[in-house]
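# step 3/5: fold
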Amino acid sequence: MQATVCLPTYNERENVERMVRALVAEGVRVLVIDDNSPDGTGELADKLAVELDGVDVLHRERKEGLGPAYLAGFRRALADGAELILEMDCDFSHVPGDVPRLIAQAERDSDLVLGSRYVPGGRIPNWGLLRRFVSRGGCVYAQLWLQVRVRDLTGGFKCYRRHVLEAIDLDAIDAKGYAFQIETTYRALRKGFRVVEVPITFVDREEGGSKMSKRIVLEAIWKVPALRFAALRGDL
């Protein structure tokens, strides 16, 4: 199956070349989605697209958040004929070598594959106790509200089969930050798709700055109950 990795970037010049080359070496297509990075990430991605087969760049006018960037990438990948569409971070917190494992699981028997930190075998080797507590607490909060068994609802390393993205109504998704990850997985579950978690090792970025903010956290806090109420109304 043709697999495309959607790779959103904003000020990732330190990472984008290494990540793109690593993904191409894994045999997948790469779609860089750049939100007009002032550090020249988009221009560097354009050069890589000229040099390397299977690399494309989608330039967006401004930074609007993770969710809108992924949605734009999903639509482009679907239009280009991808059968498997992946999402992952550009900062090497997700390991490129794990991409074939997610693809293999999707090709076997899964509609949506999640790279999970919180199933047996998943690891976060360089996080302290406070950060582990906050992250795991956010996942449990979403699990309880949404009444689902998925253990890593906030993770951003995923592989969708194209029929999932065609079914979950991308136009209705409005989450901007990490609530986007919760919403897309929940919509897939509500549609009855088979969602499987595979263990991954998650590591902190070594180059560049984190995109986490208070606004992203607050969005997730109110968005999760809103999704549950929408499901109870029959809107999902």
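# step 4/5: annotate
The beta strands are 3-9, 29-34, 55-59, 84-87, 112-116, 158-161, 195-199.
# step 5/5: archive (pending)
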